[in-house]
Amino acid sequence: MTNEAMLPEDEAMTLSDYLDKGGKLTSPENVPPRYRGELLRLMSSFVDSELAGSAGFADAINWAPGLKERIAACRITLEKVDHAERILDLMGDFGTDKALYNKAHSWSARQDRDAQIDPKRQGGDMRLSVFHYPLQGWADAVVMNFLMGLATVHQLQEQVQTSYQPLSEEFRAILPKEKRHMELGLEGLAQISETPASRDEAMASIAYWMPKVAETFGPAQSARFDRLRKLGLRHTDNETLRRAWTADAEARLTKLGLA
């Protein structure tokens, strides 16, 4: 256990003070109950979203119009499961049974396309609400992959600062691959935008997915964010992240004539 992983010897300094000053925790042995609960919830949300995202995107492999696009869809589907497993390995350090966890939910399950789904988590299924909606064809899958991929990049760029060092290191390793997933979506969207009919289809999908992806950042006023910030698990508030993502997405879509 490193010195950085231990609380300072000054007993007057609380865990919150330590974490607020940039302190890091490096193993389950250092983690108190309240921190543990929030950390596992954060990791579960990422794992469930990656598993659900991979399962939902699997159909896009057969929708792909060419070999290059099929390879890209396969890569995204595979790597998202790999990312989930990496974080699930960390959860295993806290006693999570990986085999049982994988069987806990139907990761490919989706609700109706026009369903009104509460952005809050659905029971024990911690996937982001956007992953409860079904994809509808290749252009729709590409749009969703780009918009949600860009959101994931913005979210991970913040979460690499998390105070649990093993999670920070895993997110840092995952971030470049998630960025590449987003770039593959953007490349596919550029091709789609070249054809008038496909462009219209893409714009309809953008209108559908933009508000749903925006919801993944959470409410503008969040008591939970305040708790996570005090524990060093979060640093940038939901609304700031949402605005940054929106501006980034709109700038990229404008270059393609899709905004």
Question: What does this protein look like?
Answer:
Helix 6 runs parallel beside helix 8. The relative contact order is 0.13. The protein has helices at residues 15-20, 33-57, 60-63, 67-92, 98-102, 138-159, 165-192, 196-214, 223-230, 238-255. The protein has 10 helices and no strands. The radius of gyration is 19 Å and the shape is globular. It is mostly helical.
Q: Can you summarize this structure?
A:
The chain is built from 10 helices and no strands.
What are the defining features of this structure?
single chain, 259 residues, mainly alpha, 0% strand, globular, disordered N terminus
Order of helices and strands: HHHHHHHHHH
Determine the number of helices (DSSP H or I, runs of at least 4 residues).
Answer: 10
Q: Whole-number radius of gyration?
A: 19 Å
pLDDT < 50 runs, ≥5 residues: 1-12
As a percent range, the share of strand residues is under 5%
Q: How many β-strands, per DSSP?
A: 0
Q: How would a textbook summarize the main sheet?
A: none
* Helix-strand category: mainly alpha
